[in-house]
Design a protein that fits this description.
By secondary structure, the protein is of the alpha+beta class. It has a single domain, classed as Cupredoxins -  blue copper proteins (Immunoglobulin-like). The strands form two sheets. The chain has a five-stranded mixed β-sheet, with no helix packed on it. β2 and β3 form a beta hairpin. The N and C termini lie far apart (60 Å). The N terminus is likely disordered. The structure holds copper (II) ion.
C-alpha cells in the first residue's frame, strides 16, 4: 500500500514536470535566443540550404542532405520540402533538447508546436525557416513525429566557430 502510493505520487510529479516544461517551451516568446541561435530575417540571409524530406521504397524516412554544416554568425534560409506521402517535420536543436522533445511527442502525439526552430509540413508542401546561428556547437536536426526518428529522420547540424 505504502509502495503503491509512492509510485502514484512520483508519477503525478513527473506529469506536472512534463507539462510545465512543455508549456515553457511551446508558449515561450519567439524573440528568445536558444542554444542553437535565433530566428532571423529573410532579407539578412547569407545563403539558402534546400532540404528534402521523403520516404524510401524500403521503408526508411530521411532528410536530404543527411547533414548540415554552417558557420557561426551565418543566417541561413532553409527551404524545406516534404516530397513524401506522409506528414513530416523539421526541428533543429541541441541533441539533449531533441531527445526531450522526442519523448514529449511520443507521450502527446497531437502536440502542436509553434516553435521558431521547427516546421511541420503535410505531404507535398514546402516551407521555410530563416535562422541565425549565433553560437558554435554540435546540434541536430530531426523529425519527431513518433517513429520517424527511428526510421532515419535525423542528422548532425554543425556550427563551426569559423
Ligand atoms: Cu517524419
Amino acid at each position: 500500500m505504502q509502495k503503491r502510493l509512492l509510485i502514484a505520487t512520483a508519477f503525478a510529479t513527473a506529469l506536472v514536470a512534463t507539462s510545465a516544461s512543455a508549456g515553457g517551451k511551446h508558449g515561450g516568446g519567439h524573440e528568445d535566443e536558444m542554444a542553437i541561435g535565433k530566428a532571423g530575417k529573410a532579407a539578412a540571409a547569407d545563403r539558402t540550404i534546400e532540404i528534402t524530406m521523403l520516404e524510401t521504397e524500403d521503408g526508411d524516412m530521411l532528410f536530404e542532405p543527411s547533414k548540415i554544416e554552417v558557420k557561426k554568425g551565418e543566417t541561413i534560409r532553409f527551404v524545406i520540402a516534404n516530397d513524401g506521402v506522409l506528414e513530416h517535420e523539421f526541428v533543429m536543436d541541441t541533441p539533449e533538447a531533441v531527445q526531450e522533445h522526442k519523448l514529449l511527442m511520443e507521450k502527446f502525439p497531437e502536440m502542436e508546436h509553434a516553435d521558431p526552430n521547427a516546421i511541420r509540413l503535410p505531404a507535398e508542401e514546402a516551407g521555410d525557416i530563416v535562422w541565425t546561428f549565433s553560437k558554435a556547437g554540435d546540434f541536430q536536426f530531426a523529425c519527431l513525429i513518433p517513429g520517424h526518428y527511428e526510421m532515419g529522420m535525423h542528422g548532425p547540424l554543425t556550427v563551426a566557430s569559423r
